[in-house]
Amino acid sequence: MSVIKHIPRIKLTHSPTPLEYAPRLSELLGIELWIKRDDCTGLGGGGNKTRKLEFLLADAQSKCADTLVTLGGIQSNHARQTAAAAAKFGFDCELVLQAVEGTPRSNYMNNGNILLDKLFGSKIHTLSDDQDIEEFAQGLMQQLSDHGKLPYLIPIGGSNSIGSLGYVQCVYELLDQLSTDAIECSEEDQNGRVNFDRIILATGSAGTQAGLLAGLIATNDQTEVLGINVSRPSSEQDPLVYQLLKQVMADLNFDPKKVSESMLRARVKTNGDYYGEGYGQVTEAMLEAVKTCAELEGLLLDPVYSGKAMAGLFDLCRKGEIAAGSRVMFLHTGGSVGLFAYQEAF
Fold first, then answer.
1. For residue 280, is pLDDT > 90?
2. Does residue 193 carry a pLDDT above 90?
3. What is the pTM of this model?
4. For 40-57, what is the mean pLDDT?
5. Which of 191, 204, 219, 328 has the fewest beta carbons under 10 Å from its own?
6. The one catalytic residue among 15, 26, 76, 205
7. 3-state secondary structure the chain
8. With 70 as the cut, is the pLDDT of residue 188 above it?
């Protein structure tokens, strides 16, 4: 039985999202590559944040909120999906979006995600890269409250313990897909294992990775989850994932004697070799990965998250750090709308 069955949730995701074999990429990389298509979640262009918003909006409704407030970069996929969810459920939406140093300029400020933010009817507050985005958001919350609104603040990426439940749920979805022969697996695997040697994803605000790990731990599954960092070194990313994972497990009432801190720390694995100069900044490896996936599989990645994660996957296969013949699941977190903001890079 799902450990989150009792937690309020609204339906936003077109689920289950496809679990697709990538034959041409598999041949190129020498592995068996499957892609969990969370770019196909459906809401406002799709992406991983939709799963988080199912729990976050349910919590907002329980608190009688009338306005969603969230924050991120100018091309935030999370902000775009929040704006779409607000439109669908009748919330007002205020987005606090910050310029990101070193990103393209010709389309970055008015195309891609931000174009859709406007179409969804959100109110956008644009900050320079030297302003304190958290301080501004808190001030906005107070202003809205002073004007009689009931605002609900969603953190960057929807990555708190509530939002992370979306990826606890995703683990149960994967198990259901495997039990119905979505991929060939043994009878033992069909009876309760995710059945991959490794799951690889982009990790930034940490909620997706923490939620996946919590779901795997809850189902007694030892599959390794490797986050490819999009914004910081592992010395900084690992503690973010660990702290959020620890909070999720506590909120799910897992016995700390059975789920020790040392065990949780051991499950957190990230790689900080592929984010380049910083968040949202172009790397040659990302460009290669995006172009290769498009040309070989008709698969669109994004420049900020999935493109850099796939670049990491490519390199780890070439180095032999992912063994030949491994069965790997790549979690596609979406965001291809952002390609239109990076046109000059391609």
1. yes
2. no
3. 0.95
4. 98
5. 191
6. 76
7. CCCCCCCCCCCCCCCCCCEEECHHHHHHHCCEEEEEEHHHCCHHHCCCHHHHHHHHHHHHHHCCCCEEEEEEECCCHHHHHHHHHHHHHCCEEEEEEECCCCCCCCCCCCCCHHHHHHHCCCEEEEECCCCCHHHHHHHHHHHHHHCCCCEEEECHHHCCHHHHHHHHHHHHHHHHHHHCCCCCCCHHHHCCCCCCCEEEEEECCCHHHHHHHHHHHHCCCCCEEEEEECCCCHHHHHHHHHHHHHHHHHHCCCCCCCCCHHHHHHHCEEECCCCCCCCCCCCHHHHHHHHHHHHHHCCCCCCCCHHHHHHHHHHHHHCCCCCCCCEEEEEECCCHHHHHHHHHHC
8. no
